[in-house]
């Protein structure tokens, strides 16, 4: 595929690095030559110095035969304009990064498609949804729902009380086991496990299950004593914080602490009265204690500084907060955050990349998710009639190493897959694989 990425900022360069490993024909376009030069020459792509809203520049970049045009500059209006021009000059698919929720409303979808903007992504909104999903339950690192919750992915860290430690997976139960272990993060390594693998202390284990069996997974993970989240404290009044406050369930109480008075006033205007806005320094432990940190079940650090967020979560953990979430935009720090036992790590570059990666696939994929701390991806495929995946039971499909089928949704019902499961046309199949392997298995579904 020929892919043009407009914008050599954080999201654009992360995408370019990911996609260049896939041996795609990548052009990274930016009018700022310094940003392009800073990217370095270690990646298999072409750097193009011009404005993405210049017709002549787009033509020179070869937009007329681009399979995918991605506009991820910091300026929403430039992204929309660039996609509009690219589509009219011949690009097959376009994606624009936006920061206006109104554009995503269903009534506006046709309007943007007629203009030539085929898909819109709002990374801050996606990050906020992920935060809310992870704080709903204090014992969960990552939570992801497929087909409206018919099948659920749960990522949780194994502590001493876990019942499934040091037992080969094939001994944990027979075909009626109500969950499937699809990935294990151990130190810097990610495993797509097989029957002889065992779960060790401090592993992060990813389960798929149905809603009915969530309490069972919680029990075997040894997390029954974790408190339910009722009180949430957020450090930093960013756009992600604003969206998080708008998405939290009504039964939760939330406080947002920010040291910028004008931002606090703005938050007070746009957020519900039940959200308390506090003007102060979120790094001030005395202030946090005064505001009830010790009675808080979840602490979320969303400042623009990764180091500050990591340290703030560490401090909150030491004060007894069970659930912490840190926004870590510096990808080099994600491993460090995990080794320090920061709870959930949020990285909006990775979240945005997952959604854009979905558009590269030829098969019918409705969801792609990057597991932030694990070097693994999850994809939800819709099975077509006659596709290879329907020909044999799962155990005889010859799936490559590093890939597992976590479950499927059939007629709205979640099903945990076993080796004898025969996949049918119309099923929604949830596949887990090591990072960037999705492209290698899509032929099973198309």
From TrEMBL:
<keyword id="KW-0406">Ion transport</keyword>
<dbReference type="InterPro" id="IPR050721">
    <property type="entry name" value="Trk_Ktr_HKT_K-transport"/>
</dbReference>
<dbReference type="Pfam" id="PF02080">
    <property type="entry name" value="TrkA_C"/>
</dbReference>
<keyword id="KW-0813">Transport</keyword>
<dbReference type="Pfam" id="PF02254">
    <property type="entry name" value="TrkA_N"/>
</dbReference>
<feature type="domain" description="RCK N-terminal">
    <location>
        <begin position="1"/>
        <end position="121"/>
    </location>
</feature>
<feature type="domain" description="RCK N-terminal">
    <location>
        <begin position="229"/>
        <end position="346"/>
    </location>
</feature>
<feature type="domain" description="RCK C-terminal">
    <location>
        <begin position="141"/>
        <end position="223"/>
    </location>
</feature>
<dbReference type="InterPro" id="IPR003148">
    <property type="entry name" value="RCK_N"/>
</dbReference>
<dbReference type="InterPro" id="IPR036291">
    <property type="entry name" value="NAD(P)-bd_dom_sf"/>
</dbReference>
<dbReference type="InterPro" id="IPR006036">
    <property type="entry name" value="K_uptake_TrkA"/>
</dbReference>
<protein>
    <recommendedName>
        <fullName>Trk system potassium uptake protein TrkA</fullName>
    </recommendedName>
</protein>
<keyword id="KW-0630">Potassium</keyword>
<keyword id="KW-0633">Potassium transport</keyword>
<dbReference type="InterPro" id="IPR036721">
    <property type="entry name" value="RCK_C_sf"/>
</dbReference>
<dbReference type="GO" id="GO:0005886">
    <property type="term" value="C:plasma membrane"/>
</dbReference>
<keyword id="KW-0520">NAD</keyword>
<feature type="domain" description="RCK C-terminal">
    <location>
        <begin position="366"/>
        <end position="446"/>
    </location>
</feature>
<dbReference type="GO" id="GO:0015079">
    <property type="term" value="F:potassium ion transmembrane transporter activity"/>
</dbReference>
<dbReference type="InterPro" id="IPR006037">
    <property type="entry name" value="RCK_C"/>
</dbReference>
